[in-house]
Amino acid sequence: MKPNKAPLRQVPAKRGVQAVPPDIYVRSLSTLGEIVYRRATIRVHRDVYRYLHWRDGERWHDFYLGKVAPKYPTLPDPRAGGQLAGRRRQARAGRGVQNTGSVRPRR
After folding, report:
1. Which of 65, 84, 66 is nearest to 74 (CA)?
2. Phi then psi dihedrals of residue 88, to 5 deg
3. What does the DSSP assignment read for 64-95?
4. What pTM was estimated for this model as a whole?
C-alpha cells in the first residue's frame, strides 16, 4: 500500500526572471550516413501556424506542428442575443450579397 503523499509543487518563477526555453534537437543523417542531432527551434508564422525549424548543413527545414490557440479568444456579442443566423445574414449583406429572403432558414 502506498503512503498518501501530497503532490509535489513546482516553485513559482520569481518576478522579472524569464524562463529559459528547453533545448530541442532533431535527429537526421549526415552526408556520410551517420546519425547527427541538429538544434531546432519552434517558430510561429502569421501568429497562427507553429513549425519546428532547424538547419541541416546549408539547408533549412520546417516541420508543421499545428495551429496555435488564439491569444485573445473572441467573446460572444451580448447584443446578438444568441442568434447566429442573424449575424450571418448581416455579414453576407455587408459583403455585397443580396439577402432576398427566398431561402428557408436552417432549423
Report:
1. 84
2. -65, -40
3. EEEEPPPSSPPPPPTTTTT-HHHHHHHHHHHT
4. 0.48
